[in-house]
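To whoever picks this up:

The parser on our side crashed when reading a file containing two proteins. I've narrowed it down to the boundary between the first structure block and the second sequence. Both blocks are reproduced below exactly, byte for byte. First block:
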Amino acid sequence: MTPTIYSKLGDEKLKQLIDNFYDLIFESDIAPLFNKTEKEVIKDKQLCFLTQFLGGPPKYIEKYGQPRMRMRHLPHKITNEAKLTWLECMKKAIDTLDIEDSFKIALYNCFPKLADHMVNS
């Protein structure tokens, strides 16, 4: 059985990634997209989603229901520029992790297709 990205990364590093990511997001020009919800709620939803998305237990489904990420993001105007900023913040957050460079690349490569899917403006 091939280990998942989640199992290789682990819960603590995933939490660190999310903390670092949202510190960057809330300092970026796309911060207003996130201001309608408390930061800790956003981080919890992201932790649950990424746990599941990266091959871990189905925390998001258990706590929030089916992900339906595109539908959940439709109320927010997400442009291609916003997507690029989001991806840049994710790359910077991944780069802060104490993991092998090849694993950083593999982890980052999980996100561009998902980010493309969220663009709605």
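<<boundary where parser fails>>
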Amino acid sequence: MNNYIVRGTAANGTVRGYAAVTTELVRDAKKVHGLSPVASAALGRTLTAAALMSRMLDGASDTITIQIKGDGPLGSIVAISDSSANVRGYVNNPDVDLPLNTEGKLDVGKGVGAGYLNIIRDLGLKEPYVGYVDLLTGEIADDIAYYYAYSEQIPSVVALGVLVDKDGSIINAGGFVVQLMPGADEEIVDHLERRSMEIPMVTELLSQGKTPEDMLEFLLGEKGLHIADTSPCRFQCNCSRERMERNILSLGRKEIQEIIDEQGEAEVQCHFCNTKYLFSKKDLTDLLEIQK
């Protein structure tokens, strides 16, 4: 199944929903970063959330960033998406191995630990919008829902899932976000609460061959669901040699000269895709000329 996101509305526009299948996206992230099972689940959920939230952006150059900073062994988790759902991200400690939790599932909450969640929306204005909440459970979906309720006052149902096989491979991944908008009456609130309790886990639905459309149909089909559009999502980094040159230039003349004198060259690695860029002594000297 190709990776894509579905966007829809229901109940005369008082509910909006987004659902996605992100299996290949998470597989690509696992391959790039060499993720352990628990790291695959944690980063995969965060990447899926970023992809879903990107469909709420309006401008072509807008971006959304999710930063999760917990005190668990995984360390920080970062996911960034542009408005076309090109998503990239990383986890500080990708090879963390933890025992399963008491329910026999990957213990993402323990891997993340206590800390906080930042959501950064860069809408091309002078300053980006930054929202902040403490982590509730570290299970990612609960924390995203809490962010929307606390920071943006938007009641939301959020589900994210990554199913990892015994050999560490990704079986499937996906998720959904459904939000109540101004004007939603108590009946639709009650309906959404009930259906969100009844819907199977995302990974179970995907294992049954269900689609993102099916997820929204289960939740909102009785309330006049209208599918507005579908769009692809993918794991794709936007790094380039030019960007890395700018990073080196930002170090300043003194530090660049020290690199030339002490190392003779520099290797810069992208956090998001692990691509390495080698800058020879001549490359660095040329950059020094730019600094003049």
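After patching the parser it read the second block fine. The chain has a mean pLDDT of 94. The CA atoms of residues 211 and 247 lie 41 Å apart.
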